Amino acid sequence: MRIWRCLQRGMLCALLVLSQAVGAEEESFQRVQVADPFVEMHTGAGSAFPIFHVVDRGEEIELLLRRHDWFKIRTARGVEGWVSREQIARTLNLDGSDVQLAELTQDDFNQRRWEGGVMGGDFGGAAVISTYAAYHFTPNLSAEASLSHALGDVSNSIFFSFNGVNQPFPEWTYSPFFSLGSGVIQTEPDATLVASEDRSDQFLRAGIGVRRFLGKRFVLRFEYDQMTIITSRDDNDKVKQWKLGVSVFF
User: With a threshold of 0.70, does the pTM exceed it?
Assistant: First the structure.
C-alpha cells in the first residue's frame, strides 16, 4: 500500500512538472536582436498609428503576433507595440544569423479585414470597369461598396451599390461567395444617337463568384451578377453582368 501511494504521488508530481513545462513552452516566443540603429514601435498594426517607443540596436525583442505585414513585439522591459515587417526582416537571430520570415499565407488571407480592387467585364453588352472596397467582419461575412462605369454604344451608365457578401468556405483555394445588395444607377444616353433625358433608377442585385489567393497580398476575383433595375415603366429592366479582376487585402 505504501509503495502504491508513493507511486501515485510520484505520478502526480511528474504530471505537475510536465504541465508546467508544456505551459512554459506555450508561453515562449521567438526572440530576435535589433540590428538597425533603432526600431520604431507603433501603437497599432499600421504606419498610420503613431510611434510611441524606439528600440535601440543590440536589444532583444520577442515576436508575439503577426498581422499581415506587421508584428506585435515585446521588449526586454515589457513594452509592447507593433513593428513593420521591413524592420523585423533586418533583425538577427540570437546566434547572429539572418531572420527568415514566411510569406503571407491562405490563413492571412482568411483573417483579412480590408480588401479592395479593380475589375472589368461586361454589363448587358457594354464594357464595364468597377472598383470596390470591402470590410470583413468575420472570415465568412463582409460588407462591400462598389462604383462602376459602363460604356455602351448608345448610352453610358454610372452606378453605385452596397452589398452584403457571404463566403462559406474561406479556407478553400477556390473559395465561392454569394452577394446581395442594392444601389442607384445613372444612365446617360448618347445625345448624338438618342434624344432622351438622363435617368436615375434604383436596382437590386444578386451575385455569385469565386476568389483565389494568389500570394503576397493579391487575390483573383470573378463574379456574375443578376441586376433588376426598378424603373417607372410597367416592366423593370434585367441586366446580367460579369467581372474579373485583382484585389489586395490588408
Answer: no
Please identify which residue in the block is written with the cell numbers 479582376: 245
CA distance 201 to 161: 12
Q: How many other CB atoms are found less than 10 A from the CB of residue 208?
A: 13
Q: What is 191-203 written as a DSSP string?
A: TTT-----EEEEE
CA dihedral 23, 27, 32, 33 (to 10 degrees): -100
10's CB contacts (< 8 A; 6+ apart) are none
Determine the pLDDT at residue 110: 79
Helix (H, G, I), strand (E, B) or coil at 144: strand
- Rg over CA atoms, the chain: 27
Distance CA 95, CA 32 (A): 9
